[in-house]
Amino acid sequence: MTKEAVFGYVQKKYGATPDYPWERYPKYAVLRHLKNKKWYGVFLCIPRNKLGLNGDDMVDILNLKCEKDMAILLKDDKTIFQAYHMNKKNWISILLEEANEEMVLDLIAQSYELTL
């Protein structure tokens, strides 16, 4: 799944557009609730090896909030990882190039609900 596909989905479903809050990191984007402004998703472009994978090429990841027990169950270190640069108990990182679209959309919906 691509970052652009996720952006299209959240705009259609939630009316949200990505926010780019960090001038220093122009490729990083936050998905926020329209009313409470809480984050339910964060896009980062990081070196693959930051996920514990081989290689230093840049990859897109999506950080999503999830229930603590679910984060433990989902983590497979191929597609879903402990959250990069977020609370590792309540957030996961998804390697978008490896992710199943249906799974990503379901996890976005869960993250959205958890951050209402």
TrEMBL record:
The lineage of its organism: Bacteria, Pseudomonadati, Campylobacterota, Epsilonproteobacteria, Campylobacterales. InterPro entries: YjbR (IPR007351), YjbR-like_sf (IPR038056), YjbR/MT2646/Rv2570-like (IPR058532). It comes from Campylobacter hyointestinalis. This is MmcQ/YjbR family DNA-binding protein. GO terms for molecular function: DNA binding. SUPFAM superfamilies: YjbR-like. Keywords: DNA-binding.
